[in-house]
Amino acid sequence: MSKKVTNIVEELVTPILADMDLELVDIEYVKEGKNWFLRVFIDSDNGVDIEQCGMVSEKLSEKLDEVDPIPHNYFLEVSSPGAERPLKKPKDFTKAIGKNVYIKTYEPIEGEKEFEGELIGFDGTTVSVTVKDKTRKKTIDIPYEKVASARLAVIFF
Measured between alpha carbons, how far is 151 from 116 in angstroms, rounded to an integer? Predict the structure, then answer.
C-alpha cells in the first residue's frame, strides 16, 4: 500500500525546512469543491515571512515534481499557521505554556469536552489549563492522550 500524501510531503519538506532553520507545523491535503489543496504550514521562533514561504514553496514544488505522489492537479500553499496555530506535538504544548489555548477532548473531563484558558503546564502526559468557571478560575488537568485537538486562542479585549 502506498504512503499517504501527507507522509510523503513531510519526508520531502523536512530537509528543506531544516536547511532554512524552519519547522513544520502541519500538512493538510484536502478537496474543497472541485479542487485539491496541499497546504503546508511552517513556522520558526521568529515567525515566517512571505519570502520564506515562497522559497519553501519553490523547493517543495521541485521535489513534488520529481516524486509525483499526487496523480491529479492540486494547489500547493505554503504559509504560516497564523495566530491560532494548532498544537500538534508535545513540543508545541511546551512552547505554548503561558499562552491562551483552546482544547477539545475525545471524552468529557469534569463534564466538559471543550476548554479555553491559559496553558499553565505540560509534563508530557498531562496538559494543565486554567479556565474561567463563572467568576473564579480553576485548573483542569487533561490527560495528553485525551486531547483531540488543540490550538492557540486569540483573546479580543
Answer: 10
* Separation of CA 146 from chain center: 17
CA atoms in the 13 A half-sphere facing the CB of 113: 6
Tell which residue, 40, 36, 105, 118, has the closest CA to residue 71.
36
Grid coordinates of 28: 493538510
pTM of the model: 0.80
Average pLDDT, the chain: 93
23/28 Cα distance (integer angstroms):
15
Is the CB of residue 129 less than 8 Å from the CB of residue 140?
Answer: yes
Query: pLDDT of 50-101, one tens digit each?
Result: 999 999 999 999 999 999 999 899 999 999 998 899 998 999 999 999 999 9
Question: Half-sphere exposure of 102 toward its Cβ, with a 13 Å CA cutoff?
Answer: 9
Q: Higher pLDDT residue, 135 or 24?
A: 24
Q: Where in the chain is the domain with CATH 3.30.300.70?
A: 5-79
Under CATH, to which class is 5-79 assigned? alpha beta
- Burial class for 115, CB neighbours closer than 10 Å (0-12, 13-18, 19+): buried
d(CA 52, CA 54): 5
